[in-house]
Structure formats: C-alpha cells, structure tokens
Write a structure and sequence with these properties.
The complex is a heterodimer of chains A (529) and B (171). Chain A has 15 helices and twelve strands. Chain A is of the alpha/beta class. Chain B contains eight helices and no strands. Classes of the chains: A alpha/beta (529), B mainly alpha (171). The interface between A and B is large, with 52 and 44 residues.
C-alpha cells in the first residue's frame, strides 16, 4: 500500500511542477497560449521518457530502491527550479524588450527554459509509475494489468489533487517559490519512504537533503523576477490565482506614477496611478474612455452609469473624476480579486458605495448575466498586451450581449492594442463590433501610444465624424481632442465592410494576434500608425 | 510696431505650441513652399505622437531637398522612435554629411547641428546594438531549445533500442 501512496505523491508532484512552471515563466515570458503549449509539451515529453526509463529500471533487482533514488533526484531538481529557471530566463532575455520584439524570444525562450529546468524532474517523476507497477506486481504476485490499473488510479487521483491544490490553494497562499519547495519536500518524504522500504543506505537521503537546502538558500540570494531600472521601485508583489502581479513606482517623471505590472509586462502595464485623480499624462489610453463625454448631447442629464469590464486597479474610475459636472456611477468587473486588493492598497480604488460597486472574481462575460443595465457607457478594457485577448470577449455574440446592456444611444468604448488601422486584430475586432451593433464603429488612435479606442453607439446614432477627421466636440469635454483631430488618427468601420468577423464558434484571435505582431516586426510601424 | 506684432496672424508653430493641432495642420497646409509644408507636417505629426506619419512627411520633403537639415533631423528622430534601424542609420548618416558640407551655417549653428547629429549617431548605434543583442538572444534560445529536444529524443531512442535485449521477467 505504501508504494501506491508514493505513486499518488509523484502524481501530485508532477502536476504541481507543471502548473507552477507556467507561473515561474510568467514574469519573463508571460502565460500566453505559446507558453502553456511549450510547458505542456515538455512535461508530456518528459513523462514519456520517464515511462521508458522506469520500464528499464523496473527490470532490475530492486525496483523500490530505484524508486527512492528517482524521487530524491526529483526532489532536488524541483527545489532548484526557481533558482535555475530565473537565472536561465534572465540569461536568455536581453534588457528592455518591447512586446512586438518579444514573440520569437517568448516562443524559443520558454521552450528552452522548460526543457532545461522542468524536463529532468518531470522525467524522473515519470519513472515512478512503471517502478511502482513492478514493485506491486512482484510483492502481491498480481498481473501487470492489475498492478498497472491500481497504480494509474492512485497516481491520477494524486495528479487531480495536485491540479486543484496548486491553482486554488498553494500558489495564492504560499506563493511560487514555497509551492516548489513544498513539492520538493513531499517528494523527499516519498523518496525517503521508498528508501526505507528497500532498506537502502541513508547516504543518498542525506545528500539530497543537503542539495535541497542549498537550492533553497541559493534562491533566496537571487531574484526570481526581472530586475527593474534604477528609477523604478517595487512596492508589492503577489502571486494570485490568475497571474503574477507587482506594483512598481516610477520616479523618472515630474511626479511619481504607480504601475501595476502583470506577468512578463515587457513595455506594458495593467493599471496606472498618479496622486491626483483625473486625466493622466499624454500617452495613457485611459483618457480616451472619456471621449463620449465630449460628444454627449447637450440636453443629457448629469447621470452617467458606466459598466467597466476589466476594472483592474480602478484607473478608469479615477480618470472620470476629470469631469466635475458628471454624476457618474460605476459597476466595475475584475476577474482577479488580488488586483482589486492591490487597487485598494496602492491605487486609491474607492471602497464600494453608491458611486462604485466592484464585482471581483467574475469573468466579464459572466458578469453581463448579473448586470442587466442599462448603462450610458460600457468600458471594455479586458485585452492585455497584444497576445492575450480572451477569445470569448471579442466575438459577435459577446458584443451583442454588451449592446443589450446599453441605453439607446449609449456608448461602447473598447481599448485595443495594435499597430495600425489595418492591423489584423484591430480591424477584425472593430468589424465584429460593428456587425454586432449594426452600427458604425469609430477607431481612434491614442496619441503617443500603441493603443486604439473603439467607439460605437447603440441604435445607429451618428458618430462624430467628418470626411477627414473627428468632428469638433459638441460640448466642452474634459479631454482636449488635440492630435486626434489630425488626419490619420481616426477611421470609420461600416457594418457591411469586408473582413474577418469573430464568432463564438470560430474565433482565430490567437492567429490574428501572432500575425499582427509578425507584421509589425517586419514593417516599420511598431510605434506608428 | 507693437500693434503690428499683436495683430499678426499666428503661425503653425505657434498654434502647435498651444496644442491646437488641427489649426496648426491647416496653416501648415497653406504654406506656399512644398518643402516648408513637409517640414511643418513632419513636425506636427511627430509632436502628435505619429512617428510613421512624421517620417513619411519628412521623406516626402527630402525627395525634393535631400540635404535639408530640419527634415533630416525629424526623419532621423522619427525612425529612431519607430526603431527602424535602416531608416535611422541612413538619415543619421545623411544628417552628419549635410552638416559637414553645409557652407551657410554660422559657427554656433554648426556646433549645435553637429551635436545633434552626434547624438543621433549614438542613439542609432545603441539601436543597432540592441537589435544585435536581441538576434543573439533568439539564436541562443532557439539553439538551446533544439539541442534539448534533440537530446531528449536521442535518450528516448537509445533506451527504447535496449528494450528488445532485456530478458528479465515482469514477475
């Protein structure tokens, strides 16, 4: 029975390593589909090798002794993963890489680190099942099929426990490094148990303990996140259920700015804070969510209900404070509760009250089911970077659900990263939105930034557009239109334009994102229109 | 004289300084000389945060006046912003040459332009070095990944090859 318990521990250890591996790579390479694919592929390759090696070792005289050796080896390698992974990622990534320059590095770098750091321990863990099967078959004198069935049963249950435990308990409570150390400790105990069962000498156990302790001490001396430039200071960091977060204060400008960086970040951020609420300096797209206020009908009252999908740390809400005459109230939806907590601690996100209600832990699409509206404006700010647009938040059906929650004449505003009006992602999402609302969509380039703001009105109300540029504001808004009035800063998309339309059934957004970045890399429009 | 100065119409540059982009654009379009028009448009688009538009406008002007210092300056700055290494290298070198061969510059102006050209040359070298470092990093990562994959496949094949020669019973 004890060897079966060992198989369960190894199964749990494998899944802890796999899930934590993605999070270890996140601050360097992100958690895009490419990274997930690489990690899963490497673990599968490792397990297949492990099964092969385990099968060979099982033919030896004492499979339980070999089992102990494999587990102790895995324990040492798992303990060393945070140190080795961070050191290798740091060595592979040059300093200050922009997002559009990082695609190849993400693809090959995450694969290389996974192969070097995670393949060896996962392969050692892969040897466990064949060894346990052999030990069980010999000890109980049962068939290989019977022993295999029992082993796979407990091992898979262990894996199941590892999956749930890692995502829901270990990473959010212990953090990344301690999760690896806990996995290492479990494997050490399992290895020691196997050595005890085999009455093997204790030397290897002592050596493993020493190596694990050395790996833990080494990781304490070496940072496991990318270094910050001198003018930036880390105020807080957290491993949430969804992502790796850190709050950074930038003191390079006239006044300090706080940025919430998520995963790899590269040259992007998720939320921003400055001491005074209101408009942010040029180049921050949050200001452009206030564009509808410039064109609001004169007869409209001061009440303005806003649904913010992708609240983050609450930057949008603080930006609306620029419009003093507005009686704005917000419903903010944020998937990651840790982001909301950091928002309240470091970004002056107001507590819930009449002006703001936060729904945290809810996916944006799910939140639409509990928030019927109607709203004067919907702010869609759920697209992170250019490689991580959730497929279910850019489809025809999703935009139709958004439209159903808008008041007649209400505004849909969406922030989108891109490299031009003809960028595959920008044009596909804009056209999908236009089709869903059966209305024109105005795309406005955010000056000094790589962002585009999509604006559409429910009910086909006219958009502020002349033949060449945005029309002047119908009333004084808080945001000076400035450069947005120049030719080349705005474009209209008609519902009957030709192009890709994304649906729940067919949404090749990952392909479009990669094409977007690839085209930007080849062309010279990385920062331009 | 004072009255005249007060009532003189504002130039595109003054409008631009006041953040009135569309007015500045309209005045720039009314410039009679094509090179001046390109120069004004390049400046406005650059300040508006559209480096590609600024580069296009500057290059349009440079097609007529290949040694125009302001156009070369703006084109180099825009290319650097876009991280367009070829463009930055080309325009930066042309700017250095144009400053060196321009016979009409006063010595203080020449000094200022030389400093600007040297700064651009330095930034271009930094851009080139960063591009090289990136290419090296990608090659290193790709090499390591391919080596790792190959090693894993070889190990697997070697062990699988030995399976047939084993005679140990299962139980």
């Amino acid at each position: 029975m004890l060897v079966l318990a060992i198989a369960a521990v190894a199964g749990a250890g494998t899944m802890i390593v796999e899930l934590a591996a993605v999070r270890l790579l996140a601050p360097w390479f992100g958690t895009s589909l490419v990274v997930w694919t690489n990690v899963i592929a490497v673990v599968l390759l490792a397990l297949s090798l492990g099964y092969l090696i385990g099968g060979r070792l099982a033919a030896g005289s004492d499979p339980v002794r070999a089992l102990g050796r494999m587990l102790l080896g895995a324990a040492v390698l798992v303990a060393g993963a945070p140190l080795l992974g961070a050191a290798l990622a740091r060595a592979l990534l040059p300093e200050r890489v922009a997002l559009h320059q990082a695609v190849e590095l993400v693809r090959w770098g995450s694969l290389a680190v996974s192969l070097v750091v995670f393949l060896p321990p996962a392969a050692l863990l892969g040897t466990v099942c064949p060894l346990v099967v052999e030990a069980l078959a010999r000890a109980r004198r049962i068939s290989a099929g019977g022993a295999g069935g029992a082993t796979l049963f407990v091992s898979t249950l262990g894996s199941l426990l590892g999956v749930f435990g890692t995502s829901h308990v270990l990473l959010p409570t212990l953090g990344l490094q301690r999760t690896f150390y806990l996995a290492s400790a479990l494997l050490l105990v399992a290895g020691a148990l196997a050595r005890w069962l085999a009455r093997a000498p204790r030397m290897e156990l002592v050596a493993s303990l020493f190596l694990v302790a050395a790996a833990v001490a080494g990781a304490r001396l070496s940072p496991v996140r990318p270094a910050l430039p001198d003018e930036r200071e880390e105020l807080a960091s957290r491993e949430s259920t969804y992502q790796s977060l850190r709050v950074v204060e930038d003191r390079s400008g006239v006044e300090p700015l706080r940025l919430l960086q998520v995963n790899e970040g590269f040259d992007s951020f998720q939320s921003v804070w400055r001491q005074s609420a209101g408009l942010l300096p040029d180049g921050f797209y949050y200001n452009d969510f206030l564009l509808p206020l410039s064109w609001r009908e004169r007869e409209a009252g001061p009440e303005w209900r806003v649904l913010v999908l992708g609240l983050g740390a609450g930057t949008v809400v603080r930006t609306f404070a620029a419009e003093k005459e507005l009686d704005a109230s917000f419903v903010g939806v944020e998937l990651d509760p840790a982001v909301v907590e950091l928002g309240r601690e470091y970004f002056d996100l107001a507590p819930d009250g009449p002006g703001l209600r936060v729904l945290s832990g809810l996916d944006a699409r799910l939140a639409l089911r509990v928030e019927p509206g109607p709203f004067e404006q919907i702010v869609l700010d759920c697209y992170s970077n250019q490689v991580e647009i959730p497929a279910h938040l850019c489809t025809l059906e999703f935009f139709a659900e958004l439209a159903a929650r808008l008041r007649e004449g209400g505004w849909l505003t969406a922030n989108l990263g891109g490299f031009g009006f003809d960028d595959p992602v920008v044009s596909a999402v804009a056209l999908t939105c236009a089709r869903a609302l059966d209305a024109r969509v105005l795309i406005v380039r955010v000056p000094q930034a790589r962002n585009y703001m999509l604006l559409a009105r429910k009910g086909g109300r006219e958009l502020p557009w002349s033949s060449a540029a945005l029309a002047d504001a119908t009333r004084d808004g808080p945001l000076a239109l400035g450069p947005r009035l120049l030719p080349g800063f705005a474009r209209l998309v008609e519902p009957d334009d030709e192009g890709d339309v994304l649906t729940d059934d067919l949404c090749p957004i990952e392909t479009l994102q990669l094409r977007s970045i690839e085209e930007a890399r080849r062309g010279r429009r990385a920062s331009g229109s | 004289m004072l009255l005249l100065a007060q009532t003189a119409p504002e130039t595109w540059r003054e409008k631009l300084e006041r953040g009135q982009f569309s007015d500045a654009w309209a005045l720039a379009g009314a410039e009679g000389d094509a090179i001046g028009r390109s120069s004004a448009r390049a400046e406005i688009l650059y300040r508006a945060g559209d480096p590609l538009g600024a580069l296009d406008a500057a290059e349009e002007g440079l097609a007529r006046a290949p040694e125009h210092l302001e156009l070369l300056h703006r084109a180099t700055a825009a290319a650097l912003w876009l991280e367009d290494l070829d463009g930055a290298r080309d325009h930066s070198a042309r700017l250095s040459r144009a400053v060196a061969t321009n016979a009409f510059l006063a010595s203080s102006e020449r000094e200022e332009w030389t400093r600007a050209a040297e700064r651009f040359a330095l930034l271009t070298r930094e851009l080139r070095d960063a591009a090289k470092a990136r290419a090296k990093a990608i090659a290193r990562a790709r090499g390591l990944a391919l080596f790792g994959l190959l090693a894993a496949v070889c190990v697997g094949a070697r062990i699988a090859g030995r399976y047939g020669r084993s005679s140990s019973p299962v139980s």
